[in-house]
Amino acid sequence: MALDERFKGVGVALVTPFDEHQNIDYDGLKNLIDFVSEGGVDYLVVQGTTGESATTTAEEKKTLLDFTKQHNSRKLPIVYGLGGNNTRQVLETISTTDFTGVDALLSVCPYYNKPTQAGILAHFTAIADASPVPVLLYNVPGRTVVNLKPETVFELAKHPNIIGLKDACSTMEQYMEIAWKAPKDFLLLAGDDNLVVPMISLGWHGVISVIANAFPKEFQDLTWHALEGRFSEAAALQFSFIEFDTLLYQESNPVGIKKCLEIKGICGSEVRLPLIKASEELSNALTSAMKREGFI
After folding, report:
1. Is the N-terminal amide bond of 274 cis, ω within 30° of 0?
2. Cα–Cα distances in Å, from 96 out to 5, 99, 264?
3. CA separation for the pair 106, 90 (Å, rounded)
4. DSSP output for 258-274
5. Which of 43, 61, 80, 166 is catalytic?
6. Is 241 within 8 Å of 193 (Cβ atoms)?
7. Using one digit for the tens of pLDDT, what is the confidence trace for 214-237?
8. Of 15, 32, 72, 207, which residue is the least packed, with the fewest Cβ within 10 Å?
9. Is 55 flagged in the annotation as binding?
10. Integer Cα distance of 283 and 135 in angstroms
11. In this chain's numbering, which residues are marked as the site (Part of a proton relay during catalysis) (predicted)?
12. Phi, psi of 122 (to 5 degrees)
């Protein structure tokens, strides 16, 4: 099977804009979809972690997906975040979801339960068996506690409906082992914006990005410079985001990136409890960093 080129490059993990009453701001979401699409991203990711999927309802998730489909003016591929720590519930949700216009499913490792690798293997196998679209695995141990180990990834890669992995474990040794041993047709997508260039140099194929919400053109250039072998240009852009990337997560994601979007006039910076809006200190630091790097 050939590498699925639709998900090479930059996927943007879309934030979910809210108004001052914490309701979904659909005008803001349309602005965001248009902005990142015009910025050149390769595909859209709906209801990943950055979309505050932990605090959106089942009905809101459906509406957000439908809205994105309807306002996807450039007809970019769409990846839908659908995972959880209750396997049976995930399978029920898959069975009642309309996947028309969805190109792949992004499913996170089960969190809180702390399953063994055998449990993770069984969980993802059940999801891949049930999904009518290809599945991308999502490893983010900083949030889930468990790490999807390379040997489990390689076993899951044998499943005909599992086409790739987004990994945000922040461990270069693991990234190297996966790049070395994974099948050549298995998509490898960075989940760490600040490691995209070194990961691509090892053989990874792109990124599902937080930063690309506010800086789609810059992150598209960074990623494709690296994919096309222009590593000095890619590195220069990567360096410009290093300090900035650290600031984004000081008060949890997507607090920082939503503040950047507000500064740029794309949408508001409201988040849902238990998250709270960016502090004045963080807001000032982000503004200063954006000005210093020429982003505004």
Report:
1. yes
2. 28, 9, 37
3. 12
4. HHHHHHTTSS-----TT
5. 166
6. yes
7. 999 999 999 999 999 999 999 999
8. 72
9. no
10. 36
11. 49, 112
12. -65, -40
Among the listed residues 43, 80, 138, 175, the single catalytic one is: 138
- Tokens linked to 147: 């790490």
State the Cα–Cα distance between residues 258 and 277, nearest whole angstrom: 9
Six token digits for residue 178: 């996966």
pLDDT of 1 over the 80 cut: no
Let me know: does 51 contact 64? Beta carbons within 8 Å: yes
Domains and CATH numbers, the chain: 5-230 (3.20.20.70)
Those residues with Cβ within 8 angstroms of residue 145's Cβ, 6 or more apart along the chain or in another chain? 111, 112, 114
Question: Tens of pLDDT along 41-71?
Answer: 999 999 999 999 999 999 999 999 999 999 9
208 is in an annotated binding site: yes
Residue 166 annotated among the catalytic residues of the structure? yes
**Whole-angstrom distance, CA of residue 295 vs CA of residue 197:** 20
Q: Over the Cα atoms of the chain, what is R_g? A: 18
